[in-house]
Each structure stands twice: as C-alpha cells, then as structure tokens.
Write a structure and sequence with these properties.
This protein has one domain. The protein is about 95% helix and about 0% strand. The protein contains two helices and no strands.
Length: about 110
C-alpha cells in the first residue's frame, strides 16, 4: 500500500467514524443536559424549601414581636395611668434632651 492509498483509507475511516463521533457527542451532551436538568430541579426544590422555612420563621417572629409590643404597650399604659405626672415629666425630659441634641448637631454642621 502506498502512502497516498493509506492516507485515502485513513480519510475514509475518519469519514466513517465522524458521524459516530457526532452522534456520540450528541449523546454525551444529552446526558449532561439531563444531569443538569436533574441538578437544577433539585436546586429549585431545595430553594423552595429554604424560602418556605424562612417565610415560616419570619411569620413566627412577627407573631412574637407583635405580642411583645402589645405587652410593652400595656405595661407603659398601666404605668402612665398609675403615675401620670411622672410620665409627663419623663416625656418632657426626653423632649428637651432630643431638642438640645438636634440643635447642637445643626450648629456643629454649619
């Protein structure tokens, strides 16, 4: 066999295997695509479960925070009803301090 006939037979062999290689490549890509689809589906499932868990925890936190706020408001209301003058003096003191701090901040920024 001459070198040109060997080259021709190799080319023919490569031409015959090229469609198989293309098919094999397509099979591999389909397989990878299927694996990626499975991983994406798994990731979506885990994300939904995590979001559901976070939503449930936030709902529980909201219930607890609302209850705590109501208890504090009830305690403050009871204190103000029992000691109205003390509550008025405390409110006045807080207002004067806030006004002094705000005036001081405005003067220092000029």
């Amino acid at each position: 066999m001459t070198s040109s006939s060997t080259t021709a037979s190799n080319s023919a062999g490569n031409a015959d295997s090229a469609p198989n290689t293309g098919a094999d490549t397509q099979d591999v890509l389909r397989s990878l695509g299927a694996e990626a689809d499975e991983q994406i589906a798994d990731l979506r499932h885990r994300m939904r479960a995590t979001f559901s868990d976070v939503r449930d925890r936030l709902a529980q936190f909201q219930v607890e925070a609302t209850g705590a706020t109501k208890r504090v408001a009830a305690n403050v209301d009871g204190y103000v009803r029992e000691r109205p003058w003390t509550a008025l003096a405390a409110g006045l003191l807080v207002g004067v301090l806030a006004g002094a701090l705000l005036t001081r901040r405005r003067d220092s920024s000029s």
